[in-house]
Amino acid sequence: MLLLHLSDIHFRKGEVGTAMDPNAHLRNELLLDAVAQCQKIGATPEAVLVSGDIAFGGDVDEYAYALDWLDKLCTQCGTTLSAVFTIPGNHDVVRNIAGRRLIQALHHDIKSASVAALDGVLRGLLSDPETLRLLYESIGPYNTFAGQFFCDLLPPERTIAHRDLVLNDGSILRVSGFNSAFVSSAADKAGDLFVDPACTQLIRERGVEHLVMCHHPYNWLRQGDVLRDFLNDVARIHLFGHEHTNRIEMGQDWVRIAASAAHPDRTEPGWEPGYNLIELSVDGQDGERKLNIRSHVRVWQQRPGEFRAKTHRGSDFFGQSIRLDAWTSPQPSQAPAAPTAPSVAVAADEPIKPEAARSDPMDTLRDISVRFFKLTLSQKSAIAGKLNLLEEEDANQPDFERFRRVFVRARDRGLVGDLDREIKEVAAKGR
């Protein structure tokens, strides 16, 4: 499995798409390098992980540009836009909303809570319909963007974005994206941001390995020490952004990667744009399984300008093997006696892929969702209404939540094919 990891792209309104965009050349070089590296590795990315700060100021136009560029990146790397998985960063927060007096009062209540009371305060605020709306209002444009990838966030039940990917032995890599920006504003400082209590409730399961993403590193979080100790026990890979400095730490049971910024400010000391490619494979079986991790850190050098590998003891990747818990792949299901479709011959020496432990319930919907979100609001509403996929209870929900419910209902009612057909017909008429 290959993962492409980006962070802190900072698409900035007034710059991106203009003749004087200071990062146009750099973005193009990153795209060219990513394509070349995928070809060199011999794999296409299973997921494109963006650990926050997609936008610079949380503006809808910034997300529109981000969508076009990510689409181009995914296509040229051999995958699709549905591979994108995102979390919010502090630049995805609309600052003039987060700075409102009532929201700042809520931030103050959280920041002034004692260590013992903090989880209770957060649970209370994120369970109350009015306060949860206020705390998440500032990432409204982000949620609209992230909704097409089913990475949108809405307390109290959906404060973490999840996606399951299938490793080569049929076990699951569970990607969990945290929101460390819901108490973010112009007043941010190290040690004064938060994650919600759900982030310390990931559970270990046989046949499931965890990869976690959080925009802010541990030193920026009030619960940073507690979160780090917890994740060291349950998660194999930890990805961060925000500080614009690439760094890899390898423990016995985990690998922690702090990403370079794809677009750091050129006035920053040690300006060093970059991104990461992460190869994963499982060797062995039953009680002798190991997760092999190869982290390719790509950094920008000047004179001559090009992306190159950050090296480790003469190697152009950072490698680690982590012993995994015992797990046996389920036996393949028995084929039906009378297949309804022609059988396909399999070469005798062709390996049979192990059956997955479980599959992501949104997998079949993600490609359709990306196409759906390219339609206008009126077109999306008309399709949902035609298929009776909107309910009265949706009326007061934000658009991203209403349309998420449309997809869940289509899946549950066996209408995914109908929804797909309607989307294609409307899109075709718009050409």
TrEMBL record:
Keyword annotations of the record: Hydrolase, Iron, Metal-binding
InterPro entries xref list: Calcineurin-like_PHP, CNP_phosphodiesterase-III, GAAD, Metallo-depent_PP-like
Domain of life: Bacteria
Domain Calcineurin-like phosphoesterase: 1-245
Molecular function in Gene Ontology: hydrolase activity; metal ion binding
Domain spans labelled GTPase-associated adaptor: 365-425
Gene3D superfamilies: 3.60.21.10
Protein family (similarity comment): Belongs to the cyclic nucleotide phosphodiesterase class-III family.
Protein name, UniProt field: Metallophosphoesterase
Organism listed in the record: Afipia massiliensis
